[in-house]
Amino acid sequence: MTFEKVCKLADIPDEGVIGVEVGETPVALVRRGEEVYALHDVCSHAEVKLSEGEVYDGTLECWLHGSCFDLRSGKPTGPPAIKPVPVYRVKIDGDDVLVSLSKES
Asked: Which residues form the Rieske domain (predicted)?
């Protein structure tokens, strides 16, 4: 499994989200304390950037229609989305955040 450095841990606000590119794949990085989650940065309902949404209660909410996605599984927790978004593996190496595009299982 190949991991790619995408940013510094300090680049992601606590309880916040940023968008990055891994190759040509858009990825939303969410930080909750020392945990970082990586989800595909495209809403499965409206195809807009999830990284422009809000983080709360272990979910990332799409800014356009309010669909919420579980940070661990990518599964929708509220309508209108019904399809999950892919989630990716994250490693923290010192101050660096690394992401593998291999999907979590």
From this structure: 4-99
Please name the residue that has the structure tokens 């309880």. 15
Tens digits of residue pLDDT in 46-61: 989 999 999 999 999 9
Largest CA distance in the chain: 38
Q: How far apart are CA 4 and CA 15, in angstroms?
A: 23
pTM value surpassing 0.70: yes
- Rounded CA-CA distance 11/17 in Å is 9
